[in-house]
Amino acid sequence: MKLDFEHHQSAHCESGVTSSLLRKSATNKITEPLAFGIGAGLFFVHVPFIKINNGPAIAFRTFPGLIFKRTCIALGIAVVHKKFRSKERANNYLNQCLEEGHPVGCQVGVYYLSYFPREYRFHFNAHNLIVYGKEDDNYLISDPVMQAATTLTSYELERVRFAKGALAPRGQLYYPKNEKIITDEQIKNAIIKGIKTNVKQMLNIPGWFAGVRGIKYTGKKIKNWRDKLGLQKAGLYLAQLVRMQEEIGTGGGGFRYIYAAFLQEAYDYLLKDELLEISKIFTQSGDLWRTAAVQAAGIYKGRISSQEDFNLMGDYLIEISELEKKAFLMLKNIKWQ
Amino acid sequence: MKKENVPQDSSSLGKITKEVCYATDSSGKYVTELSSGWEVKTNALDVAWKDIEERIARAKQQVLNGKASPLLFFMEYRLMDINILSDYTGFWKWQIKRHLKPEIFNKLSSKKLQKYAEAFNVKVEYLKTMTVYEA
Asked: ipTM of this predicted complex?
C-alpha cells in the first residue's frame, strides 16, 4: 500500500514534516520556512549543570513537537497526536492510519536509524519522519533531511519509534485530522502570531540561560572554558556547540537563515517593509554564527589555543546576542494593524 | 550566506545525501541550495568521535584488567550512559552498577544477559568477548 504522497527534502526535520503533512490542505503554501516561523522555531538555550554526550546542553531551536503543534493551532487545523505504552498498539495504530489514507509523522531516535551513517548516530530522540505506506514488511519512509525517500523494516521502525533515553518518543505519531482548505488570511494571521510568540520566546523568557540573554551567557562562559576545562575538553565543548549549530537539520547558521527566509516570505503576505530589513539582520546573525564556528574549529583542531582566541570566540556570541536582541525588538515594535 | 558560498566539502553524510541549506541569491532573495558538507562541522564531528574512540579503548583496557565488566565496554561503544541503558533494559540503575563489577556480571543469568544483548544489538555470546560487527 502506498499513499498519494510526494517526498520533499527540507533542512529541518520537524519543519519539513509539518510542511509536508500540510501540503494538501494548504495547496503547497506552507513552505518549510513558513512552518518554522509560524511554529516560532527559533530559540537558544544553554541548560546549566546538564551534560549531553559529555558536553554542554545547547539548543538553537524550540522544544521538539512545538513547531508542528503551534503551526497547526495557528492555522486552525485539528491534530491527532498519540503516544503509546505498548509497541503492538503503536504498530496497529500506525497501520490503521495508513489504511485510512493518512501519511503520519513519527518522532524517532536516530541511534538505530539504519539509513544514517554511523558517524551521525547519537542517542538523539527528537528526529521526525513521515511514514506514507507499507509494502510487505517494509514501511515507506520520507525522512525530510534525506534527498530521496527510503524504507525501514517493521522491526527497524519499531526500534527507532521506541528508542530510549532523554525525550524518548514512546511511539509518538501525529497527523492533521482532516484536510481543510487554508486561506491566505489565515496564513497572514498565523505569521503574525508566530512572530509574536518568537519575540516572547527570545526576549521575555525568564532565566539567564535562554533566549538572547542565553547567547550572552554562553559567550561569557566560553571565555572561562580554557582555564576551567583545559584545552582538550574545551575543544570538545566547542565542537559540540558547532554541531548543534550546523549539523543536519539546521539549514546553516543555527536556524538563523531559515528564519531570515521566513521573514522574506512573511513580507510577501504582509507587505511590511520592516520584515525585509529584519530578515537581513538575521542573515547577518547567521553569518556571525558561522564566523564563530570557524573560530571554534581553529581551537578544536589545535591551530589556535591562547586565551585571546577564547575571548574572541566569546565576544562573537556576545555580539550575536546584541544583534538578535535588536532584531527581535524591531519585530516586537512592528505595528500590524 | 550567499548561495555561491554554501560549502561543498566532502563528508561522510555527503556520500549518502546532500543537505539543504538556506542562502541568498544575487538579488538577496532566499533560496535553498544543497551542500555536500562543511569542513568546520566535519572536524567537529571528528573531534567528538575521537573522544568516543578513546573512551572505548579505555573501557576495553579496564575490562581486560579485570576492573570492570564488559558492560562498560558496550556502554561506551553504544554511547549509552546508565540512564539510557536502564531505559533500554528495564534494570534499575543500582542493578546496572552492580553488573558493572566483573564478578557479578560473570554470574548473571542468561535471561539478564539476553536483555543486555538486545539493548546493545549484539549476540549474547559476544557480550563476554567484546566482539562487535558493524553492518
From this structure: 0.93
